[in-house]
Amino acid sequence: MSSTEENPSTHPPGGELRTLEASGKVQAHGNEPSVESSVDGPAAVEAAARKRARAETIGRYTAMFMMPLIMVGMMVGGYLAAMHSPTPNNMPVVVAGAPAAAAEFAQSLELADPDAVDVRTVATAEEARKLVVDRDVAAAVVLGEGNASLYTAGAAGASQAGAVTGLLAPQIMSQGLELHAEDLAPLPDNDKSGLGAMFMTTALIMAGYLPFSLTLSNSPELLRLRRAVPLLAGWAALAAGLVWAVTGPLLGVVQGHAWAVLGVCWLGVFAVGAVQLLLTRLMGPMAIIAAMFLLMVLGVPASNMGMSVYTMPDLYAFLHNFLPTPALGEALRSVMYFDGAGTGPYLLVLAVGAVLALLLTLGFDANKRRKNPNAALPMVAVQSLHGGPRPKTRFWRYAALLFFPFAMVAMMISFMLGAMFEPTPRDMPVAVVGATMEVGQEAVDKLDAGMQGLFELRAVDSEQEARTLVGDRTVSAALVLPTAPNGAALLLTNEAASSSAQQLVTTIFGQVAAGQQMGLDTENVAPLPDSDSAGTVAMYMAMGWMMAGFMIIVVGANAAPASRPLRKLLPIVAAWSVFMSAVLYMIAGPMVRAIDGHFWALFGTGAVAIFAMAMFATVFERLIGMLSIIPVVAILMFLGVPSSGGALSVYMEPEIFRVLHDILPMPAAVEATRSILYFGGDVVGGALLNFAIWGAVSLAVVAVIDRFKPVNGRKEVPPHGDTSTGSVASLVAQPEVPRELVPA
């Protein structure tokens, strides 16, 4: 070895590097050159490059599959685990009356079902009623002489009031007491379902966690704390105004309390956004998964809004005390239905959460700056939201960032709440059976006169025909009139077809029979099993199929753009559809036990549905990139869920959703699942035809688009001044916190 080689210091500056560059032994890694071993030649350099490219490809495809798998799996699994079979669980109940009688009655409630109620006694009826109004208990029983008053608060949750009434009323009557039921806080006429606060909460939570998750991947410079806080404050005001404008002046769900509602909405969005800002610091792009898990998967069931937390496992009553979703929902409920009573503790949860999150973010940034003052910028994983070149001006880039969450929140609150906040029967089909057709038609005419527009009544020949019509879901119910004097009528219902419709017709025709002093027996021709007592399993399975279909396209187009060409995409989506259909069945079946059997029928139907929805999402992804989420989610979820009948009968919604029920894939998925589980698969063929049409037409459109607009399967190189997009770390790893994000 020469003396020059032994003493590198004798080389002129850069001389060794230039010598090695000339021999092909230098490989660039980011901004720093790396020197290969002097014994390796260009072949080794090329091999190392191939190895890195292979690792990059594997990482990107891993992200493409793992992100949708985690998000879909936790959403479907979380909701099914919490809500597939609501059962009273430690419902707080108070009993008042004579001390000995109250203690004896409380003991009888505990002995009847120790796990269902948590009973205590109070001294006076006034104290018992106050606890109900303050929402400290689900119900109160006040014993009198030969009677008992059952007090509930419908505005604290219609499902809770119904559940606790169904639990306590039989116990009261079994002891020979005359029952008097009273709703101390009924829901207002403008929100009879009590869904106003629930959908407002969901929309506001979405407004809180969506913007920063997307900003990190597209415009990370906005996450600088001194920019992020005022931007969040302004966005919270805009989102609060949007939600109030839709629910107040437009829909009339919110009447009065304008400033209080706006204030709660603003604080809710700001608090959730502050928490999400902290999560982006800690977890990078994976913060979106953490947000969905905490705010939606755990937060929505624990919110006590759609379903009582006292009908779920104990975990959700515990989470109700401190998660932001329950705090926001209960604060809105307090303002809207209880004149602000009890709002303080929930506002405190939001305020403390916001302040704590911002302080932790500030501390995290300071610590990161101390450890690494020259940290690199986060990688820009999403160059543009619309699928084209990165906008040349910040105005258009920021406008797209604002438009995305604004559109999602606007559609969610208007479509979902607009469909379901006023559940009133509209031409619900009901059959009527008389001793003769003439008698039946006469009864139809009389009922029509008193219930104009509520039901579409039709006279049928026989009880057997009525049973057939109810069983195949042609009608929602059938009323069989008594043939003997002073006899009782028979109401045939179908709970598995729609539990909401069954409850409604039972209530209304019970009132009709009572008004005519006629007895009424009821028969449920298709009762739901205990594993699906709420009748929502079909809806959650269908949601899983829809989400699995469109998310693989949206995530894959960004995580693994090489998968975008149709010749690569089709086998990937086919394999994904088979895999996810099996995964969703495993979640609903063996894991949660909401489904028993029917594997092959559900597996096959799910695979077809997922594939078809992926092709549908591909159409919009080709045209508008990541913004495709807006029309795809609008059609498949925001319009699809109300029109599916999975949560509420389409005959209790505006007529447009009845039309969409026969067109959209989400209703087809719900009906197919119901049919497989409870009706022998009688309509699966029609659902598969629906999926086939949506899938085939979408695939043809994609082929045409690709013909005129060739697919770019490469990651776009960022413009000067932005950061690299060349590593899958931008999708799945925690980025370094840059100096630009640290407070000055």
| Principal-axes shape call | globular
| Overall strand count | 12
Task: Return the average pLDDT rounded to an integer.
Answer: 86
| Major sheet description | 5 strands, mixed
Q: Looking across the biggest beta sheet, what order are the strands in?
A: 4-3-5-6-7
Helix content: 55-70%
Unreliable parts: 1-39, 716-744
What's the N-to-C terminus distance?
Answer: 53 Å
- Backbone structural class: alpha/beta
Strand content range: 5-15%
| CA gyration radius, whole angstroms | 30 Å
Number of alpha- plus pi-helical segments? 26
Would you mind describing this structure in some detail?
With 744 residues, the chain is α/β, with parallel strands linked by helices. 59% of the residues lie in helices and 8% in strands. The protein has helices spanning 3-6, 15-22, 42-83, 99-112, 125-133, 158-174, 196-218, 225-250, 258-283, 287-302, 314-319, 324-337, 344-371, 394-420, 437-450, 463-471, 499-515, 537-559, 566-591, 599-624, 629-638, 640-644, 655-661, 665-678, 684-708, 729-732, and strands at 26-29, 32-35, 91-96, 117-122, 139-143, 147-152, 178-183, 428-433, 455-460, 477-480, 489-493, 520-524. A 5-stranded mixed beta sheet has the order 4-3-5-6-7, with helices on both faces. A hairpin with a 2-residue loop joins strand 1 and strand 2 (32-35). The longest helix is centred in the N-terminal third of the chain and has 42 residues, at 42-83. The two termini are 53 Å apart. The model is unreliable at 1-39 and 716-744 (pLDDT under 50).
Give the arrangement of secondary structure elements.
Elements: H1 3-6, H2 15-22, E1 26-29, E2 32-35, H3 42-83, E3 91-96, H4 99-112, E4 117-122, H5 125-133, E5 139-143, E6 147-152, H6 158-174, E7 178-183, H7 196-218, H8 225-250, H9 258-283, H10 287-302, H11 314-319, H12 324-337, H13 344-371, H14 394-420, E8 428-433, H15 437-450, E9 455-460, H16 463-471, E10 477-480, E11 489-493, H17 499-515, E12 520-524, H18 537-559, H19 566-591, H20 599-624, H21 629-638, H22 640-644, H23 655-661, H24 665-678, H25 684-708, H26 729-732
Parallel strand pairs: 3-4, 3-5, 6-7, 8-9, 8-10, 11-12
Antiparallel strand pairs: 1-2, 5-6, 10-11
